[in-house]
Give the backbone structure.
Amino acid sequence: MHTGLDSDFAIQGISFDSKNVSDDYLFICKGAAFKAEYLKEAIANGASAYISENKYEDIDPSIPALIVSDIRRAMTLVALWFYDNPSEKLDVIAFTATKGKTTATHMTKQTLDSWVGNAGLISTIEMFDGRETEESFNTTPESPDLQRWLKRMVDNDVNKCVLEVSSQGLRYGRVDGTHLKVASFMNIARDHISPIEHKDFEDYFTAKLMIFEQAEIGIVNLDMDSNYVERVLDASRKHCKTTLTYSLQDDSADFYGYDLKKNDKYTTFRLKSSYADTSDELFEISMHGRFNVSNALAVIASCLVVGEPLDLIKEGLRDARVDGRMEVFTSKDNNIIAIVDYAHNKLSYESLFSAMKEDYPEHAKNIRVIFGSVGEKAFERREELGTVAGRCAKFSYISADYPGKEPFEKIASEIAHFVELQGGDYKIIEDRNVAIEEAISTAEGPTIVMALGFGRLKWQKYADGYVPRESDVECVERCLAEYDKKHS
């Protein structure tokens, strides 16, 4: 691929990370904290040209420079050009929500697998191109990384991709130019409000609605907050060729779920849908909680509109499991029910505590929760999570989440204040694993231990970078084994 500049080289790659540059790369100078040293490092590593909003006078003038007015827009256009618009060659099924998008994304991938064999995946947890899996560090990657992964899927003969879309991914144009076959808007609530995310809820909501601007089919949950549902429907109808709805409350929805029941292994429900030409189709999912049935409706609708047969959807959905989402572990004496989940905001906390009280009423009288909140952003979570935990849990262990450059002690004290306001008991233990160990080892009588926010993640973000750790799942399994040995 040629630059169109007076140069005799072909671009072999693009990157905005100076450490991830090789010979004849086009380097993208982006970021509020960008320094000329990054460009110099990229050139030393092989970059033959660069794109920037500024001309760097101390850079060798023989290095071609493309000066642009909007580096993010330019980065997106370059990525689409270099990777040849890969989303035009596969069906991209996207989800956005305040709560549940990771679960729905993974459920959809596994459901599609029962039909197409290997569906692609880009999510908070991991990315899969049909052959290889890599851990994720952003919910929605920057556009060069996103387009590169989509191109890898095309090259691997993958024809379906499931994409988790964050408000930041939409606000900063990471998915611009990506054709979405389906876009599901699952719910909306206050979150991600901070100087480095969204200045207020309106900014957050407006960013979320942008998902429909490049979608062919919009899918909307009618059960979300009634203050917002009409605005979501309007946005979908404005931009999408087709808008479909789902609900557990409104039987006029295109996909209506009803008659929810729970047994030891599955949650069952029935589906009424004119789109699927059924009024009494029985479905099973392996995850408990009404909110997971709602997630399943979004999955069913998304898979049906891209052509998956209903019987294969039922089969795939029944066996779908999401690592780190509502994973349940039980001590041998059934005294301890341990829950590991990625829940990290008010809406997900409220849904999870409600499910615990419904599914484990005796154990739910004694809930011990291990949680924290991110540093430097989403400041409202500290009040919201502390309030929910203080009200619903018998005891809270306030531990490190992703402190980043903000002192953990400051974050923890702010959370603790709101736990106290609800009359809740708590203890501050920075090390999550130590907190989990104490919560399990000192449990007496029927107890639920909830480790929230991390699931199977094996790292935490501090000022100096990413720090490896034992995942919550691994820690819970180890602590329950020690508990079982002690109580055998």
Summary: Residues 1-6 have pLDDT under 50 and may be disordered. The first helix runs from residue 36 to 44.
